[in-house]
TrEMBL record:
Listed name of the protein: Membrane peptidoglycan carboxypeptidase
Annotated PASTA domain residues: 723-796
Listed GO biological process terms: cell wall organization; peptidoglycan biosynthetic process; proteolysis; regulation of cell shape
Location of the region described as Disordered in the Swiss-Prot/TrEMBL record: 397-426, 626-652, 794-843
Native organism: Catenuloplanes niger
UniProt keyword annotation of Protease present: yes
Composition-biased stretches (Gly residues): 806-817
GO MF annotations in UniProt: penicillin binding; peptidoglycan glycosyltransferase activity; serine-type D-Ala-D-Ala carboxypeptidase activity
Amino acid sequence: MAPPLTRLTGLFRAGNRDHSPLTSAFSLIICGLLAGVVVAAAAFPVAAISGLATKSGIEAFDSLPTEITVQRTPQNTYLYASDNKTQLAMIYDENRKDIEYREMPQVIRDAIVAAEDRTFFTHNGVDYKGILRAFLNNKNSEAAQQGASTLTMQYVRMAISYSATHPADVVAATEDTTARKAREVRYAMQVEEEMSKEDIITNYLNMAPFGAGSYGVWAASQVYFSKQPKDLTIEEAALLAGMVKAPSAYDPTTEEGKKLALDRRNNYVIPGMVELGFITAEEGEKAKRAEIKVNGKRTPGGCVNTSKNDWGFFCDYFYRWWMDQETFGATPYDRERRLKSGGYRIVTSLDPNIQKSARANVGRYAADGNRNALTVAAVQPGTGHVRALAVNRVYKNDDRGNEPNSDPVKRRAGVRGTYPNTTNPIITGSPDVGGFQGGSTFKLFTLVAALEKGYPLTYDIASPRSYYVSNFPVEPNTTGPCRGRPVYCPANFSSSLTGTFNMWSGFGRSVNTYFVPLEERVGADKVVDAAKRLGIKFRTEEDQRLEKGSSTWGAFTLGVSDTTSLDLANAYATIAADGRYCEPIPVAEIWQDKQKLAAGDPRCGQAIDKDVARAVADAARCPVGDRSETSRCAGSTDPGARDRIGKPVIGKSGTTDGYRTAAFVVSTVQLTVAGIVGDPDNHNTSMQGGGDAWGDPHSEAVNPAVINTLADAMKGKEAREFTPPSEKMITGKLVSIPSVTCNSEADAITRLKARGFQVQVSAERVDSTCAAGRVARTEPGDSTVEGGTVVLRISNGNAPPRPPANGGGGNNGGGGNNDDDDDDQGISIPDIPGLPDIPGFPD
């Protein structure tokens, strides 16, 4: 992928010119003059030839190198939106875009010849008369010093500089020595033999520096006159040509520089154009009198200077993605150099219309000055193309006007907050920016793992108000419903969320005490593995530590791991794409030298079985008010999403304790949108309450921002149905569990293992009519998947209380509260690995 290397002498072939010993002799003399050695040569040229131009001298000159291996000059890289016409950003080290000879107007070619080399069309690379004239003039110390480098020699000098691989080589290419001048003359003569005048002047005008960060006539035209070269007038072209001699001195954006530049243009360049017959005297006088407006604004480069500020976070994501791609270089330095100098045309995946909608909806529900960040990401299922990245922040390095940090420790240390200005990748994450907890959106990964293990959608679990888990350890001496016992015991908020649930109703109602026992039976490590296959990354040190011991990460199903809107969107997009995972990618096409590179192609693979993904999608239609293909939904946490979007959808909301974060994902077959709201400076900040928070961060912020973005994107699009799952995924192959009620613990374990089941014994004793120490019941009760886990509940010897006349719950959790935002609010549970200081889960 490196910019191509080429020999100057092989770039452009033209008819060779004569090269005789006499030419070499003259050139050798000229080298001597340049070095100040041949003092008498001007007065006695014949003597000089007969004395200096000996055979050995000519041979020595002819033996100088004539070939230069040169890297292509640095070229601008352009980023465009997915429409291939909306320019997002320009990235460069040197602002340059090479253009062809036919794109350079005659007026700029004429002007540069008049300004720099009036014998250009008649010499063979070296202006002998000019060198003699400069030599004689420069011997008079009172006269202004003159140079005698032709356009060809200047081009050679610049080309050698660009071929340098070390700073010392650049110095050698421009140092004032005899050796350098001799090489330059020799190279120039050879270039003239192998390149046409058209090619030489084209390369020169593409390479020359014009000041204000512009290199080449295309960039100079843009910087100084905001136009393309083809539109330059005589007066503008003459001004640019006159600047090449000393861009800093002739800078027309300064008062003194403009005065000098106009003087050189009017008294030297334009008269030269008249003298050479390029323009008439009348045209010259008119050009001198013409008013000229100079802009002189440096062309914005990089992500901070995107055409629209809300594109900055996407541009930054692209830059970070590029820097991770080894195909663009072995080291980060190589990758950055190629990005800034490779002249790529990159069609990104950003859809400007979806981006506009996402940013508008984010701003509608969370102002830029809000300390809480509302992040939204949109991903296309089946390709991984990132269609939008929006947040209520300004992509800007300058934080001098930012508000105080919401973290008290950082605020006391004088650290400012990340609002409104920041360049932190809070939408996409990085090794230093982990994101926010995803809450119950992570329950989807438990569905995946359970279905893969053979548990069907109809799999029932009797879900209590709180659930005690013996094999997920917690810190000792904790308080809460576990009453100091070292077991994990998550809870639901309302008694209406007790009863028997299956995957449709458990996911639709977001029942914690359905998903924790399901995770327990499947294996927490299997759930974590499913999340990883769907693209969830563990960026924080704490998450990475817990991931290594994932078999006991009991809280994982409730979304205690940090994630980002982008990762969450892409995980659900994988489900929408029938289990085909695609790496999230910010590019659609990458072009260089009119060739499309494979580096921009989607990178996809089957992460989970299609039928498993279809079953997950069927359950995931329930939380967002859609009907599953099997019509088994019974309750919804976000019932209005389907009607607002007007298309078949899947999705889920998620909230962490105390509303420290609120997340929401919704997807059609064609597009997935996810959002999270949280405080990036202080993860303990509640999203519920006064000030910058909301009464309900779901209904008042993240949910409508996500839903409206997807609804806008889907206007006029086909309503595509999700493919229904197979009967196997719905009912599965279940085997009966032998009754071991009132058996001894040892006997029950023996009998169950003999039937191929895995057995766990709950540490929590329960009320039962069986004697203390005997098996009160099994969970599940009647049947489970072949080889599944059976949990033994042991009796405490106390008879259970009589049930109330009208108990809540029932099959599928009917009659319950549909508010996902407070399913478990206010329940206190102990500190557990991965769940620090979290007393309950609102969904």
